[in-house]
Amino acid sequence: MAYLAHTAHPQLLGLWAGSVGWILTMVTIGLVQWRVWVVTDVSIISSGLAWVGIWKVCFYSHKVVTSEWGALYCQKMGISDSFVPTEIVTAQILMLVALVLGLLANASTLYGLRNVFFGLDKHRPIRLAFTAGGLLHLLASLSSLIPLGLNLQAVATNQNITFPENFHMPPAPVHQQVGEAIGVGISAAILSVASGVIFLCYRFPVRIHPRAQSPWEGVHWLESPSAGHSLPSRQVRGGGGVDNPAFQSEEHI
């Protein structure tokens, strides 16, 4: 089964890409730098920058939290909060869906590779595992790209969010910037797409079964001068035929 294992080297790369993409998806969910708000009032937001993620809002402040070097002030957001816009609610749901789909995809492809490299000559489980894993990777990337695209549009159009008073956020920013989380999420989606395509493109090697050779293949029939019967004479490869002494003796008689 070593030959079958030799055909799955690209799928090892696909497993690596899918695993890294899944880890980056998890990092994207945890990062707060989805949208960067630039504000002019630095009385509360000391740095003039506020980070709006999908689960919380953070900024540095010398006023809200007293500290010699400043402190990071954060407030959490949930799906049930009424002020949370649609693009953030969508991101909260679909990013978790992408995380689960990516985990299932990696488990499926790992099972398929296990069958390949452990010499289990069963094509159907391997094909099903690779196909299911590839499709799950594509669905995971789609689940990530939808909320990423919506938040990119919100940044481009400078959409505001009406935060509660305890968030200490302005009604609207001067302008917005794309945060690092969106870049990490796009990279994760690209890796997931690449992994899905690699597994979906897997093809089993074509096996050529050896043809059974007839025991009389290569035998030439010679006529006997005396009895008139046909006798077999096997030709030797790589040289001329070998004379049979019995035939020579019959010819001299």
Could you characterize what this model shows?
There is one protein chain. This protein is an alpha+beta fold and 253 residues long. Helices cover 48% and strands 13% of the residues. It has helices spanning 2-6, 9-30, 86-117, 123-156, 180-200, 245-252; strands at 35-38, 49-52, 56-61, 71-76, 175-178, 219-223, 230-234. The strands form 2 sheets. Strands 4-3-2-1-5 form a 5-stranded antiparallel sheet. The radius of gyration is 36 Å and the shape is elongated.
Whole-number mean pLDDT: 82
Order of helices and strands: HHEEEEHHEHEEH
Q: Helical region count?
A: 6
Distance between the termini: 61 Å
> Class by helix and strand content?
alpha+beta
Shape estimate: elongated
Low-confidence stretches: none
Strand content: 5-15%
Q: What helical percentage do the residues reach?
A: 40-55%
> Radius of gyration over alpha carbons?
36 Å
Biggest beta-sheet profile: 5 strands, antiparallel
Number of E strands = 7
Strand arrangement within the widest β-sheet reads 4-3-2-1-5
Task: Report a brief summary of the structure.
With 253 residues, this protein is an alpha+beta fold.
List keywords for this structure.
single chain, two-stranded antiparallel ribbon, 48% helix
